[in-house]
Write a structure and sequence with these properties.
This protein is of the alpha+beta class and about 280 residues long. The chain is built from 11 helices and 7 strands. The strands form 2 sheets. A 5-stranded antiparallel beta sheet has the order 3-1-7-6-5, sandwiched between helices. Strands 2-4 form a two-stranded antiparallel sheet. Helix 4 runs antiparallel to helix 5 and helix 4 runs parallel beside helix 6.
Length: about 280
């Protein structure tokens, strides 16, 4: 079963699909193992027939999309000769005829499937098809970000645990802190985002940079994006590379950097990094 955050991402994508495509029924689910997806999210359904339905790779329209790792559609589900018909009873109970199914693929691995459907046997136009594919891409991006966050969190915890035993590990931790902060704006799940920010905060304070500093430095407060930019600067990243990493324009990065340097009382990039560490803003 997908976790709550993943279910939230899926639900949001399906609602966008229904709103932008005009399809009256949308539904989908993520894989519970390598070959099976469970329909867990529906919008516009009139019966409970589809909820909880387990789709096997290769079976039905969604299973075909999963097996081929590409979008598939039928104009009349119950009459189509291009799919198997294990799920006809549930599909007929909901009265679905024209259906599109799009797999959610992350790193060449199928992670779920999204559907959109009409209750009339009408051909779906290119725009509807493109919107359905776009919705699946939204879920793919969200899952990829979540995967990267979880990977970085696990790696960071390990590095922090080894920091007193292996020379140079703090540079690794600082890089992880920078990478985690760069991912925060991309995380839609508020629970995961809060966890991410909490870990970043613990990393920043774990360096001990704020100990013994004067109160003026400790009172420094930077905006989240200012901290993101300073974290990039601390690792030697150029403004252009920081802009690409953070999804900002180079001019915006410069603006955040100038603002952060002013608040920190710094005249150079190096001074800004040192002051940020003294203030406990960076590890």
């Amino acid at each position: 079963m997908p976790d709550t955050g993943e279910a939230t991402e899926l639900r949001a994508a399906l609602l966008r699909l229904r709103r932008t495509s005009g399809l009256p029924v949308v539904f989908g689910g993520l894989l519970s193992d390598t070959r099976h997806a469970r329909i867990a999210e529906l919008s516009g359904a009139q019966t409970p027939a589809l909820r909880g339905l387990v789709i096997s790779a290769g079976s039905g329209l969604g299973g075909k999309a999963m097996a081929l790792s590409r979008a598939c559609a039928v104009t009349d589900y119950r009459a189509s000769r291009h799919i198997s018909h294990e799920y006809d009873t549930a599909v007929a109970a909901e009265g679905l005829r024209s259906v599109v199914a799009v797999p959610v693929v992350v790193g060449r691995t199928v992670r779920g499937v999204l559907y959109g459907a009409l209750r009339e046997p009408l051909a779906l136009g290119d725009r509807t098809f493109d919107v359905a594919v776009s919705a699946a891409r939204d879920v793919e991006q969200a899952l990829a970000v979540r995967d990267e966050v979880q990977r970085l969190l696990a790696s960071t915890r390990q590095r922090a645990a080894e920091s007193d035993e292996r020379p140079g590990t703090w540079e690794d931790v600082r890089e992880a802190h920078r990478d985690l902060r760069a991912l925060v704006p991309k995380v839609l799940d508020p629970v995961l985002r809060d966890e991410l920010l909490a870990v970043c905060g613990r990393l920043a304070s774990a360096g001990g940079g704020g100990a013994g500093t004067d109160s003026a430095v400790r009172r420094v407060r930077l905006a989240p994006r200012e901290v993101d930019v300073i974290a990039c600067v601390a690792s030697g990243t150029t403004n252009g590379a920081a802009a690409e990493r953070l999804g900002l324009r180079p001019e915006t990065v410069k603006s955040y950097l100038r603002s952060a340097m002013r608040k920190l009382g710094a005249h150079t990039r190096l001074e800004a990094v040192v002051a940020a560490r003294r203030a406990g803003l960076l590890p």
